[in-house]
Amino acid sequence: MVRIRISPDQIDPAALLSRVRSDADGAVLLFVGTVRNHNEGRSVEHLEYEAYAEMAERELAEIAAEAAERWEVGDVAVEHRTGLLRIGEASVAIAVASPHREAAYAASRYIIEELKKRVPIWKREGYSDGRSEWVRGCAHGPAEEPAGAERDNG
Amino acid sequence: MKVQVLLFAAFREMTGAETLSADLPPASTARDLISHLRTEMGHSRIPPAPAVAVNARHAPLDTPLSDGDEVALIPPVAGG
Lengths: 154, 80
Known about the structure:
The structure holds 2 protein chains of 2 kinds.
Chain A: E1 2-7, H1 13-20, E2 27-34, E3 38-39, E4 42-51, H2 53-70, E5 76-81, E6 83-86, E7 90-98, H3 101-118, E8 121-127, E9 132-134
Parallel strand pairs in A: 1-5
Antiparallel strand pairs in A: 2-7, 3-4, 4-6, 4-8, 5-7, 8-9
Chain B: E1 2-7, H1 9-15, E2 19-23, H2 30-38, E3 51-54, E4 57-59, E5 70-74
Parallel strand pairs in B: 1-5
Antiparallel strand pairs in B: 1-2, 3-4, 3-5
């Protein structure tokens, strides 16, 4: 089962982990992306995320389904926050359960890399000097993805 | 025909609008819509060939549009 959520609510990584775990899985892997205090040499104070929620949820569900086709995984849960986030807060979390760790690592990596390329979410960085800018993102559409993207991730 | 345009992030700020309504000739494509927004509607800061989604799915610019379609202009994405 795949559970996707785009929401302004705080992410609870422990809840995500327990949601995907099952007795058939020997590995449960959690990736948490957090807001860091610097980017490209500038001091960052906060991030503001915006999403096209309906499309973002659909794209994430497709990405999770692609991961499940490529690797042996059990349940997958992905959450992404929107709105204003302070330093250290979780912006994204991906939990993958699998009978084996190799599949869990590969699937988790695939999901975060594809999320960054394809999912309609944007972030504005707020700097210590009071300015803010939209982060220069990835313009690649799905048609430009390399085939076998998992090989590019190592 | 009328289509609803959704604008996000930098594109929302460029146009000062979250949504726009565009009146297009029949058989217009997403590319025609962009051109209409940039010229007739005066939103010249929108780039000439942005990524678009039609009814919440990625779509090429030559996609033909239908009355009532929802077309999102997608700035380069930066999730994570």
